[in-house]
Design goal:
Shape: globular
Structural class: alpha+beta
Radius of gyration: 23 Å
Length: 141
C-alpha cells in the first residue's frame, strides 16, 4: 500500500512539473521583446487604397492591417459618434516572439469643450499607425 502511494505521489509531482513548464513556454511567446517605433498618420498621409478601405468600414468599429512598400499600417476605428472632439491615444505598440501587440484608448470630448458646429455633427474617430513591415500577426488589445 505504501509503495502505491509513493508511486502516485511521484506521478503527481511529474504532472505538476509538466504543467508549470508548459505555462512558462506560453509566457515566452507573449513576452515583450521591444517597443516598436511608429508614426500616427494624418489623413493626407494615408495611402489611397487604404483610404478607400477605411471609408468603407468607418461607420462601424473596425480593426485592420495593410502592408505597402515595406510598411505596416495598423488601423483602428471606433465607428460613428454623435459629436466631434474625440482623440485616440496609442498606449502600446510592441513586438513579441510571434506577434505585434497594439493597444489604444479612445478619449471622449471634455464636457463643454465641443463647439456648437461640431456638437450635432457626427464624427468617425480612427487612428492609422505606420511602422516597419514584419511577417507577424497583429493582436489588438
Amino acid at each position: 500500500m505504501l509503495k502505491k502511494a509513493n508511486i502516485l505521489l511521484k506521478i503527481l509531482i511529474v504532472l505538476a512539473v509538466l504543467c508549470l513548464v508548459g505555462c512558462g513556454s506560453a509566457n515566452d511567446k507573449t513576452k515583450k521583446l521591444k517597443d516598436l517605433d511608429f508614426t500616427v498618420l494624418a489623413e493626407e498621409a494615408i495611402p489611397g487604397e487604404l483610404k478607400k478601405l477605411i471609408e468603407e468600414k468607418k461607420m462601424q468599429e473596425f480593426k485592420l492591417t495593410y502592408q505597402d512598400s515595406g510598411f505596416l499600417y495598423i488601423c483602428i476605428g471606433y465607428g460613428k459618434m454623435s459629436t466631434g472632439g474625440f482623440s485616440i491615444q496609442v498606449k502600446e505598440l510592441y513586438e513579441t516572439a510571434n506577434a505585434i501587440y497594439v493597444s489604444t484608448l479612445l478619449i471622449g470630448p471634455e464636457p463643454g469643450s465641443v463647439d456648437l458646429t461640431k456638437k450635432n455633427s457626427p464624427s468617425y474617430p480612427l487612428v492609422v499607425i505606420k511602422t516597419k513591415a514584419m511577417d507577424k500577426s497583429v493582436v489588438f488589445n
